[in-house]
Automatic annotation (TrEMBL), chain B:
Main location: cytoplasm
Molecular functions (GO terms): hedgehog receptor activity
Gene from which the chain derives: B9D1
Subcellular location: Cytoplasm, Cytoskeleton, Cilium basal body
Name of protein: B9 domain-containing protein 1
Keyword annotations from UniProtKB, A to Z: Cell projection, Cilium biogenesis/degradation, Cytoplasm, Cytoskeleton
């Protein structure tokens, strides 16, 4: 720029230019100013100036032009003409400065040349259009005028009035060439794309991974390359290989989602996908206790082809040698095949070459240092290889020598004994060698070795020399020191006599080192030659190749000596067979085959083992039979269990060796076994051989008909190793197993040429690498995200240690303890350790069986199992809860269903819709129920309205002492007959009208709160009182699920209030009354809270649970009165109470369990057929339409959460044999006993066990395993028992009091129907008014469902004849026949006998615990136990069990009175099924026996447990209080 | 505890539901409520509110202006579950039935700041929330719901503040609501949460040079 400036400075207009030096382009036109002067063409137009008009125009133009020109001259900058400047022009410009004089000229010229073409064009136009020149010119001028008069356009335009520019094609092309660039299609030579002097580098060839490039047409690629080269010469678009950089092809070879076939396309029928329902392989839940793995059909094929003895007692000496020879020959063959010596020789040669190469410096450009190191390495390797080779060669040679030696021995033996036993024959074949070449090679080898050794020795020598020198130096120094020391010593011996002692030399005197001897070449040569001679074939010596054949002939028997004949006879007598042992059990054996003269046995048998268990061991036992005497076990051969990949057809024959340790001495030529023998005549060089041999066999897995190997699933195999492996890495879990497969995988990878650098294969390659390098190392992890480690910002331990994080995580996992945790503290330190305590305890307890709560271990296991099922169901529920349906989120008005109801109804409904939505006077609607969220303790109350009771037992008159003796004196049997007669007269005598029969009152206890009514009179009292009991939810959690899981029961106890006169003295009677109130328990009604919660209210008459024996009370009176005319009545004799129970405020029972079931159905899956499910839905909808209140059940949910058709639960199942044997001739009694057995299985409502989830039905075996279930399970089991007893029985779904919707069992006797309550074991006639079942919804049989479509649903008023389609609507009918559904129940039930001892032990423990409890409940009083009474009671309880608590009262009473005459006795036996201890305690507590506070009261308590099969226990508790009569 | 530093941080939100744009509807009212995580608790102010009914302005903007105030203070230990405001707008349809006109949700602004610190940065926390309504499941249902004035509604407006279960619904957009927030936080920085500049002047910073072409 500076130079330019100076140039410019020389111009004529320095002042003008200088200030604008920077903005030169702007100033340029100024210099070109002259160009805009009037152009020449004007002159060419003169010829046409004929018209005045034109003249005028010209004048105007002229004027304008002059004007413009003057303006131009003044105003310097004018817009440049639009024209691109070519670089050449630029050059010109700079030149202007230097040649100012020629500037104008040049410009003019340039202009001319430019306008030349235009002029030319104009001329031609003019020539063509000469006929109408005027118009054209006119127009032209007009244009010009327009330009002038119009907007002020560029000065040039104004000035240069000329025709439009025309450029010739050539020029244009030329110009275009300057501007445009058309990329060539030709291939760009590589050198252009790469930096200079760089060879293209192909990364792929170097082994680096390069993905497949995207396919681009070659021409396009070329065009792109050319373009890039033109645009950016930087070459940064090109890779090292000279191609455009590109990412690998991102397109996957196969679509990751299925093709969406448009509907127009016709899918071929054979390509159409069919939906098939998944079939459950094993129709049993794995959860169950005791149910083992399913028996599979697996097959193991064992092929036993033959047996060869390598030694046998009957071997003759020759045989021994022959066996040895054969063995050696085998060895030789094996060695020859491997040919290790050759391999090592080659290797040695290669190494030597390598050393030679690296020694030559000209060829190796590497640094000296590395070369030396490499050479050293080579050398050491050469040394080793040589050593190895020598050893191998020597071995080969010795082997050959031994073979020859043995053969010679054999020959001599044959000669000696003059007969041959074996057809073995050894031929030594000589192979000629080229003597000279051989010698040379030999010599060269020796020389090479010598030189190497020499070198080696030299090196060693030098090293030693170095050592020596340094040692020598040391020694010298030491010597010197010694000398000086000695001198010193001599001087100072007198002064320091101790010095010598104090400075002992550290060790011995260093020995003067001996210089090492230089190596002697001759010696080394000697050594090498010796060794070579020893181990190698001498040069020129022919190579010996032994060949063993069986071409020899065996001497026939008649030419043999006697002993030999004897031996052969012996061999002939022997035969061998094999036993096949699978898991130490004999499963098969081969045929017995005679032993051949060559001691080979051929079996050729294949055994197909159908197995159930995973094989643990597979053994062959070799048995030998000699003649007709016994067989001896020779040896056991253990076969390996094949890999799962080894299947029949692919398994090679393998030889497994065996040997036996038996000692056999024979009296013939046979050498025996385990006995020393010798070949030498003098008996030296003794040999002891054991019987041994080889079994050739193959073991493999069979292949099924459809090509599937019959291999037991992995889960069945020994769990430890395999399953761990399975979890550890993906590949082995895919299907292959074990380590060998990993090797196969590696082999496969090698064969398929897997690109090891492809990142897609990285995990696989890593795995293979690990598998092939480390023999037994398997990674114990499989890392999905290899880089995860790098992105962890804290370690996992640290993360786990953080209490806050843990809390957050547990909360988000919705762990029950933390699900509602609010405000998790900010800092760890603010989180108390005890927050986790409950949770951790629960986790711990999961594995620990709590024996404190559950006395019986089996129950404990069941409780644990139930807990697990509960958890898994809750987890499922939680997952399902996160799965929303539209209805969960959006409230939407139902659309009137046109299809089902017809248009008329739709119209009606629409009409109805037109009603006012927000009427001015709205009607009052039912109170909204309280959602149980924001409640707290004390907000909820339980209201119990006790209305009245019927048939309360009445007191019997207190028997006075004098009445007693005659009764007790009677014998037992006598009493039975006599009691009614003796009783009734006393009756009439004992009931004067004035006497109060009984004064009952009701006490309600709930959650240990007790309320009671006032006392009423008589056996049919009426209280009509409302009791209010507070309700407390567990842990103050009033959520729906929590409320549903409240397990508490409401106990309604009826007591008799007894007044006792305690006045001691009759004289005081006049002045005062002194009585004591005692209360006697009469019975109770137990209602679970969950029932109240779901029913919202309970209203009805309930049977009071009275003990079978109620001492001092009877209800004979009423019974006698009614029995006369109502025989059925007797079945339901008992006391009844009318109750009304509800809650205040009314709680929303969440979604009721049954309502939710239908919702859940959609969410939980099913194994049932889709059509069946649709049918059930339709059936249910139809039923619900007609009778919305009647229960209709078609599908239920089994314990694993699957929907199951209900009839699958019904199937005849065998009751315990014990029960059937009890009354062989009385079917009714048997039925009752079975019902009793079922009722003894504890009751546990589903809603409690599966809080708020749904009703789960377990099968009968599950039910018996769990020993807990609700009505359905009891009913199903009872119904199944009845079916197996040959009864006609149905499951009856309906409503009962107090259970609500429940299941009963209906049986058909000869003439009437019986209704069985499965939970209590009671049965009722159809017309029994006190039957708790109040309505019948449907009946379910093993093959059909009948819905009640009669007008009434009370069992009293309906007809149970299911064959009438007008009364019962059946599910399966002619239109939908019964498809024959398989049952979910097991084939039969297996009952274990309950351990009597355990029951007895439990009995004692319960008794002890209850006694302690009673003492606890009486903290202020002394509790005395009457042992005598207790033992009496204990004797009495089994009797009660036997008679099931019926008709024993009188005898019992008499018995007791006889024994405890002096006591006033009140007590009763309680009977209940055993589940846990808590209900027992609860029951005892509720009787209030302990409440007696008479000072001299004594107690008696006895427990009896009667065990039924399958751990069902019937518990009897007899509690009594005794007061001594004065 | 004072020595140990704060154990909660506070978030004070006030502002207003300013206006709405519902081109087709008039006479709307708005209901707001807050949805927040388990670690949050309101300490003062109102969690829910229902505004007055407003008519469209008569000018060109046709805005429905409520200017309904919001004022609430939360305390929390964890930013997870940061409060969201859920708006639901209702109004009468042709037949005079009260129907839903739109649901919308917005997080309370994370950074503290006010809407009018200085004229230059006004409306820092101005949010314009798009509103939407659930669609009927079928054409027929759409008709009947229109006819009966019982349009589909969310069982709980709070579902719009959560992702769970939304996949089963289909919605249609419908208008906008503008909200203004003033947010004050306390102790957030002390607990290690940095939600923005310490003072609002920070973001003002050096203003961009004036003469630049925009």
């Amino acid at each position: 720029m500076v130079s330019e400036k100076s140039h410019l400075g020389d111009q004529q207009e320095p002042g003008h230019e200088d200030p604008n030096a920077d903005a030169r382009p702007l100033s340029m036109p100024t210099r070109r100013g002259p160009r805009s002067l009037p152009p020449i063409p004007s002159a060419s137009r003169t010829g046409f100036a004929e018209f005045s008009m034109r003249e005028r125009m010209r004048e105007k133009l002229q004027a304008a032009r002059s004007k413009a020109e003057s303006a131009l001259l003044q105003e310097i900058p004018t817009p440049r003409p639009r024209r691109l400047r070519s670089p050449s022009e630029k050059e010109l410009e700079t030149e202007f400065g230097t040649e100012p004089g020629g500037k104008i000229q040049t410009t003019q010229q340039e202009d001319d040349s430019q306008s030349y073409s235009r002029v030319k064009f104009r001329d031609s136009v003019r020539k063509i259009k000469s006929k109408t020149p005027d118009e054209e010119e006119l127009l032209d001028d007009k244009d010009a005028v327009d330009f002038l008069l119009g907007l002020d356009r560029g000065a040039e335009d104004i000035v240069a009035v000329r025709p439009a520019d025309y450029e010739s094609v050539h020029i244009r092309l030329q110009k275009e060439k300057e501007l445009l660039f058309i990329p060539s299609r030709r291939t760009v030579p590589t050198y252009k794309k790469l930096p200079e002097n760089v060879q293209p580098r192909f990364l792929e060839d170097e082994g680096l991974y390069i993905g497949a490039r995207l396919e681009v047409p070659r021409t396009n690629q070329n065009i792109m390359e050319n373009r890039l080269l033109m645009q950016e010469p930087g070459r940064r678009w090109f890779g090292d290989d000279g191609r455009i950089l590109a990412l690998p092809n991102p397109i996957k070879p196969f679509p990751s989602r299925p093709l969406v076939l448009s509907q127009e396309q016709d899918i071929k029928a054979e390509l159409e996908t069919l939906y098939k329902k998944a079939v459950k392989y094993v129709h049993r839940s794995q959860h169950m206790i005791g149910s083992g793995d399913p028996p599979g059909n697996f097959q193991l094929d064992i092929d036993i082809s033959g047996l060869i003895f390598t030694h046998h007692p009957c071997f003759s000496r020759e045989h021994v040698l022959a066996a040895k020879l054969a063995q050696l020959y085998d060895q030789y063959l094996a060695r020859r095949q491997r040919n290790k010596a050759k391999f090592l020789t080659d290797k040695l040669q290669a190494l030597r070459n390598a050393v030679q190469m690296s020694l030559n410096p000209a060829k190796t450009p590497k640094s000296l240092d590395t070369t030396r190191r490499a050479i050293n390495e080579y050398k050491s390797e050469i040394r080793q290889t040589r050593k190895l080779r020598d050893i191998e060669q020597e071995k080969d040679r010795t082997l050959l020598k031994t073979i020859i030696k043995v053969w010679k021995e054999m020959k001599s033996l044959r000669e000696f004994q003059r007969f041959t036993n074996t057809p073995l024959k050894l031929v030594l074949r000589k192979e000629k060698v080229d003597q000279k070449a051989d010698e040379e090679a030999y010599e060269a080898e020796v020389q090479a070795e010598i030189s190497e050794l020499l070198e080696e020795h030299r090196e060693e020598y030098e090293q030693r020399m170095d050592e020596y020198r340094s040692a020598h130096q040391q020694w010298k120094a030491w010597k010197k020191a010694q000398r000086t020391k000695k001198k010193k010593k001599k001087q100072g011996v007198e002064e320091h006599p101790d010095d010598e002692m104090e400075e002992p030399y550290p060790g011995e005197d260093p020995v003067k080192p001996v210089p090492p001897e230089p190596t002697n070449q001759a010696v080394i040569e000697q050594e090498v030659r010796e060794r070579a001679a020893q181990s190698r074939r001498r040069p020129g010596e022919p190579m010996l190749v032994p060949e063993l054949s069986l071409a020899g002939s065996v001497t026939p028997n008649d030419q043999c000596p006697r002993v030999e004949v004897l031996r052969r006879e012996d061999v002939k007598r022997r035969s061998v067979y094999l036993k096949v042992l699978f898991n130490d059990k004999e499963v098969s054996r081969t045929n017995s085959r005679p032993l051949g003269a060559d001691f080979r046995v051929h079996f050729g048998q294949i055994f197909n083992l159908q197995i159930v268990n995973w094989p643990e061991s597979l053994t062959l036992q070799v048995y030998e039979t000699v003649g007709h005497s016994g067989t001896t076990l020779l040896a056991e051969v253990f076969l390996p269990i094949p890999e799962t990949t080894v299947v029949t057809g692919r398994a090679p024959l393998e030889e497994v060796e065996f040997s036996s340790n038996q000692h056999v001495t024979l009296d013939h030529e046979g050498v025996g076994s385990g006995v020393p023998f010798s070949f030498e005549a003098d008996g030296s060089n003794q040999l002891t051989l054991m019987t041994s041999g080889k079994v050739s066999n193959s073991v493999s897995w069979a292949i099924g008909e459809n090509g599937i190997p019959l291999i037991p699933p992995l889960s069945q195999q020994n769990i430890g190793f395999r399953s761990a492996l399975k979890r550890a890495d993906a590949i082995s879990s895919i299907g292959t197993s074990g380590l060998t497969d990993m090797k196969k995988l590696a082999k496969w990878a090698a064969e398929s040429k897997l690109d090891p650098n492809d990142p897609n294969n990285a995990p696989l390659m890593q795995l293979i690498l690990v598998a092939t390098s480390g023999e037994s190392y398997v990674p114990d992890f499989f890392r999905l995200e290899q880089l995860q480690q790098e992105f962890n910002f804290v370690s996992d331990e640290e993360l786990n240690r953080s209490k806050r994080f843990r809390l957050l995580r547990l909360r988000s996992q919705e762990v029950p303890e933390f699900r509602n945790y609010k405000q998790i503290p900010v800092y760890d330190r603010e989180i108390m350790e005890k927050v986790f305590q409950d949770y951790e305890k629960r986790l711990r307890d999961r594995n620990v069986i709590e024996t404190k709560d559950h006395i019986d271990t089996h129950r404990a296991i069941v409780a644990k199992y139930l807990q697990q099922v509960r958890e898994s169901v809750i987890n499922r529920f939680l997952i399902a809860k996160h799965h929303f349906l539209l209805a969960d989120l959006i409230v939407e008005e139902e659309v009137p269903n046109i299809s089902s109801e017809g248009s008329g109804i739709l119209g009606l409904r629409l009409f109805k819709l037109a009603e006012q939505k927000r009427p001015l006077r709205p009607r009052r609607k039912g109170r909204k129920k309280v959602t149980a969220q924001n409640l707290s303790d004390g907000d909820i109350k339980l209201l119990v309205n006790i209305i009245r009771a019927y048939d309360i037992p009445v007191r019997k008159p207190i028997t006075s002492k004098f009445q007693q003796p005659p009764r007790s004196s009677r014998t037992f049997s006598e009493k039975q007959a006599a009691s009614p007669t003796t009783h009734s007269p006393t009756h009439s005598a004992d009931y004067p009208l004035s006497q109060v029969l009984v004064r009952p009152f009701v006490e309600v206890s709930f959650q240990r709160t007790i309320c009671h009514t006032t006392t009423a009179d008589g056996p049919n009292p009426s209280w009509n009182e409302e009791l209010e009991l507070p309700f407390r939810a567990p842990n103050g959690n009033y959520s729906t699920t929590s409320l549903q899981s409240v397990k508490d029961d409401v106990f309604i106890n009826i007591f008799d209030e007894v007044l006792y006169d305690v006045l001691e003295d009759d004289r005081e009677r006049a002045s005062g009354i002194h009585t004591r109130i005692e209360r006697h328990w009469l019975g109770c009604v137990k209602i679970p809270f969950s029932t109240i919660y779901f029913q919202a209210k309970i209203d009805g008459t309930f049977k009071i649970d009275t003990p079978p024996v109620l001492l001092g009370y009877s209800k004979e009176q009423s019974v006698v009165a009614e029995r006369g005319f109502d025989p059925v009545r007797s079945l339901s004799e008992g006391s009844y109470i009318t109750l009304f129970i509800t809650m205040e405020p009314q709680l929303v029972p969440g979604e009721s369990v049954r309502e939710k079931t239908s919702d859940m159905l959609k969410k939980f899956d099913s194994q049932e057929d889709e059509k069946l499910l649709q049918a059930t839905e339709k059936f249910q909808a139809e039923c619900a339409l007609k009778f919305p209140n009647r229960q209709c059940l078609t599908t239920v949910i089994d314990i694993s959460g699957k929907t199951v058709f209900i009839t699958r639960y019904l199937k005849p199942l065998n009751p315990p044999q014990e029960l059937l044997n009890a009354y062989p001739n009385n079917p009714q009694a048997t039925a009752e006993l079975v019902a009793r057995y079922v009722s003894l299985i504890p009751f546990l409502p589903d809603t409690v066990s599966f809080a708020g989830i749904c009703d789960l039905w377990s099968t009968s075996d599950q039910f018996l395993d769990l020993l807990a279930g609700d009505e359905e399970e009891h009913a199903v089991l009872l119904c199944n028992y009845f079916l197996s007893l040959g009864k006609k029985a149905w499951l009856m779904m309906g409503n009962a009091i107090p259970e609500g919707p429940t299941a009963y069992v209906l049986t058909r006797e000869q003439s009437h129907y019986l209704i069985w309550n499965p939970c209590s074991g009671h049965f009722y006639g159809q017309f029994d008014t006190f039957c708790p079942l109040k309505s019948v919804g449907c009946l379910i049989g093993p093959d059909n469902i009948w819905f009640n479509i009669q007008r009434h649903d009370s069992p009293l008023r309906i007809n149970f004849d299911i064959t009438k389609p007008k009364l019962w609507k059946s599910f399966f009918s002619r239109s939908l026949p019964y498809p024959g559904l398989s049952s979910v129940q097991p084939e039969e039930l297996i009952y274990q006998r309950t351990d009597k001892a355990a029951a007895a032990e439990l009995q004692d423990r319960i008794e002890k615990i209850l006694k302690e409890k009673i003492m606890d409940w009486r903290p202020r009083h002394l509790t005395r136990w009457n042992r005598y009474c207790t033992s009496t009671l204990r004797h009495f309880l089994p009797l009660l069990e036997r008679s099931q608590g019926e008709d024993v009262e009188d005898d019992h009473r008499a018995e007791l009175l006889k024994q405890l005459g002096d006591y006033r006795f009140s007590g009763f036996p309680l009977h209940m099924p055993y589940s846990e201890l808590k209900p027992l305690i609860e029951a005892v507590y509720s009787t209030g026996v302990h409440n007696i506070d008479v000072p001299n009261v004594e107690f008696a308590l006895a427990v009896y447990i009667h065990p039924y099969p399958k751990n069902v226990l019937s518990v009897w508790i007899y509690v009594a209080s005794l007061i001594r009569n004065r | 505890m004072a020595a140990a530093g704060p154990s909660v941080f506070l978030l004070m939100v006030n502002g207003q539901v300013e206006s709405a744009q519902f081109p087709e509807y008039d006479d709307l009212y708005c209901k707001y409520c807050f949805v927040y995580g388990q670690d949050w608790a309101p300490t003062a102010g109102l969690e829910e509110g229902i505004s007055q009914i407003t008519c469209k302005s008569q000018d060109v903007r046709r805005a429905l202006v409520w200017n309904f105030p919001i004022d609430i203070t939360f305390k929390s230990t964890n930013p997870y579950g940061w409060p969201q405001i859920v708006l639901s707008v209702y109004g009468p349809d042709v037949f005079g039935n009260d129907v839903i006109r739109g649901y919308g949700v917005a997080h309370v602004p994370l950074s503290p700041g006010s809407t009018s610190v200085c004229e230059n940065i006004c409306f820092r926390h101005k949010r314009t929330i798009p509103m939407f309504v659930p669609e009927s499941t079928s054409k027929l249902q759409k008709f009947t719901s229109w006819f009966m004035g019982r349009r589909p509604e969310y069982t709980d407006p709070k579902v719009v503040a959560q992702g769970e279960g939304r996949e089963v619904t289909r919605v249609r957009s419908q208008g906008f609501v503008t909200l203004l927030f003033n947010v004050v936080t306390k102790d957030m920085r002390k607990l290690g949460y940095d939600t923005g500049p310490p003072d609002t002047h920070g973001i003002l910073g050096p203003s961009p040079p004036q003469g630049l072409p925009r």
